Amino acid sequence: MFATLVPFCFSTIFVSLTFTKLVHLSIHAKTISPGAFVLFLPSLLLPDVLVIILSRLALRQQKGLFSVGACVLGCIFSFILLGASASQLGFFYSTGNEVKWSEALSYAGDKDGMKILLSGLNSVLAAGALIVVVAWVAKWFLYRAVGSLIATVGMPVVHAWQWFRHRNGRSPQSLAYDSDSELDEDLEVAKEGARLIPDTHEESRTRPRTWIILALISVFLFLTTTLRPAAPYTMMSMTLPAAMLEMFKSPAKLCNNVEGGWPLPDLITPDNWEEPNGRFPGWTPGNDGDAARKYRDTVPEWLPSDIPAGFSKWLSKPNKTTDEEPAASPSKACEVPKADGTFYNPVLDPLKISNLDTDIIDVIRDTLKGGDVKIKHVALIMMESYREELFPLQQGSNYHRLMVKSHKGEDIDEINEKLSRMSPVAERLTGKSGNWKRKDGSDFEHVAIPQWNDTAQEGYGGINVVGGFTTSSLSFKSMAAIHCGAWSMPVDGFEESETDAYQACIPQVFNLFNKLKDDKKSKDFLEQQWYPAFFQSITDGYDRQDKFDDKIGFEHIVTRGRLEDDRKNGEELEEINYFGFPETTLKGHIEDYLKEVKEKGKRMFFSHFTSTTHHPWGVPKSFEKTDFLNTEGKMGWHSEFNDYLNAMRFTDAWLGELLQTFDDHGLTNETLVVFVGDHGQAFKEDQKSKTGTYENGHVSNFRVPITFRHPHIPRVQYNANATSLSILPTILDLLINTGSLNEKDQNAAEDLIHDYEGQSLIRPYKATHNGRRAWNFGIINGGASMLSMTSADAPWRIVIPLDDSTQYRFTDLKNDPLEKKPLEKWTLEQLTYAVRNKFGEEASKWAAEADAVSKWWGPERKRLWGYNPSHKED
């Protein structure tokens, strides 16, 4: 058995390395020229060849403690490699991407993260089975062939070694083949018959040309390895065992230099500075002068002496006391400038562009000031993996044509009638008609919405943002930006849960308002206390979400854990995915919360995160699925997108049911409801090479709906390249300008709104200001590898690599909105040159500017969040 096991273990190593290398090269080979690929291919394979040779030398069937120990270790190594290779191949099959091993331990150490990994178990098992079968069939051939190859290559090496020993006084007799000698044991094959080193007499007859061939190969490998460009060839040459070592890389190395200055000094010269004006604190980046010091050193007069959570930036100021002590900076935390530490000072922020000095847009100005709009309650609905172009689906759009095309040969009116029923609630929320018409030009019948009786008058319903982007394709980073109005950090995982946001989050702002008034019942809602609550039908245990929810101030939380208690008490609940239950299971808890709000005379802040549209897009068994896309036969590759569309249809109905629940409790006319996608979701229909959000910079992962719903606000289609970072300041602006805050609260809100980096979406959006662009940043899942950027003044989009494993990616969204023809290069110099030739000088300048800004922006986020990677080691 042992005689068979050893060759099988070696064969497993060989096959695992070969398959993963083929996948690795297939992903990146198209990014370089064919000539360069052929030239450097041997050097790219060299690390894998070395691992194979070392494995073959270790797996020798010989007696002796050392040899047996080497065999045991070699077999253990083969099984580790089998698991890693199967995971790599399975992940590639599912997503078109590679496993990032530096994140593997964080997933494996999280029970809910493990559920994500196990969701792809079938493809991993299939890949593992393939490796095992191939390795078993080829075990003797590979074992002997590689042994013979090592023997052939090893002969001149051994000959030279023996010659060297002879020159140093060893007797000729000692050079004769001796199976007990240390050298020969290292180069001998065992029982199967092929010896790595032949007899010394044969060795002496080695022809000189063997030396020449080996010398030429060695020189070629040396030159192509040392002289090739670092990018992308160092990454392409990475062998699987070396890549796996990233799992054990010290997190302290993730700290970047945060001392780099603003890269565009011409934009922050004194002639561009802005003086303080009213509540506006001024803008003087690069000059720590009077305005900056005043903002830093002046404690707001409205701030309570017992400083609430979210406002710790003033903890160290005089005349204020708190029960909390400022945490000591951990020794392994990223170093930050001593002047401001984690303090965000808008006066010194070179990216800060405020539009609060402009009037509210005409369409809604008079309505807001006339007192017709009251906002007693605020609801924030985050929609998992929601895409703007499908909220709602519109006839004639690119994706509508895709769906129709899949049904080739079927009646077009029947197909369109089916598609018109996918997102009727979204049509009402956004004010964007689906434009559904028959082929003869007549309208389809109005789609009934049984879940919701919308009572808003025609022409009213609120503000819908056209052109919205998320701040991250990682759900929780997006959630942090939405709730806190602060950019997240370009680091792997939800590290924001381990520290405090550098801006006050929405529940914390409302808690501040609570502390500014007496906690007593009042019929005047302006004097009532806010009651923040969070609802989610799946687990909140994944990647420390529960820690974040508690930290930012939710007083009432219902997630899977609470729903599990219901199931223990006899309630039947259906799990639809590896995270939990459908949103409809929350309805009873939501109604209990709404009753409590009314009975206790409180103001509601209701936050809800949907989940059905998360992979694997399961829906309850009672939900009747529809073939929005043809998935029969050759069209089977549409099945995942069709599952997603059905999950969207289910969620669309749930949103209507939720709004009807608000209406049933008499809250509709005094509730502002904000709808926003946490990020999008890429499918094979978008690009066949990669799917999902993980390390995928495609724009379909970033376009999201952003809608502010209130039945008394006129309909507005707000065109701006804005992000969900603007939600919090827009909520404050609406509360201020509808008279929905008492005097003390409004006084605080009028100060606070100037702190946030996002612009208000009820005022004209400033795409540029004094030559500065309104930049938008999008952190790509998992966090530390890629960053996407757009600016409100230009149609271009760039994906910037933060490590050496990905390329720069440039697209023109005006002429290529679906990013079918991206321009990809490995270096900034290559990219700007190619962009200049294809898109012009201005586009090239924009790309270089975006890259420069990103190099400043990333470390600055870590400074502001007080990023401390050492907690992973604690």
Explain this structure to me?
- The longest helix is centred in the N-terminal third of the chain and has 31 residues, at 65-95.
- This protein is 41% helix and 9% strand.
- Helix 1 packs antiparallel against helix 2 (34-58) and helix 1 (2-28) runs parallel beside helix 3 (65-95).
- The strands form three sheets. An eight-stranded mixed sheet has the order 4-3-5-1-6-7-2-8, with helices on both faces. Strands 11-12-13-14-15 form a five-stranded antiparallel sheet, with helices on one face.
- The protein contains 27 helices and 15 strands.
- It is α/β, with parallel strands linked by helices.
- The protein is globular and about 100 Å long.
- The chain has two domains: 2-248, no CATH class; 359-488 and 502-771, Alkaline Phosphatase, subunit A (3-Layer(aba) Sandwich).
- The two termini are 45 Å apart.
- The chain crosses the membrane at residues 36-59, 71-96, 116-138, 211-231.
- This is Sulfatase N-terminal domain-containing protein.
- It holds the Pfam family Sulfatase.
- It comes from Fusarium oxysporum f. sp. cubense.
- Residues 536-735 form the Sulfatase N-terminal domain.
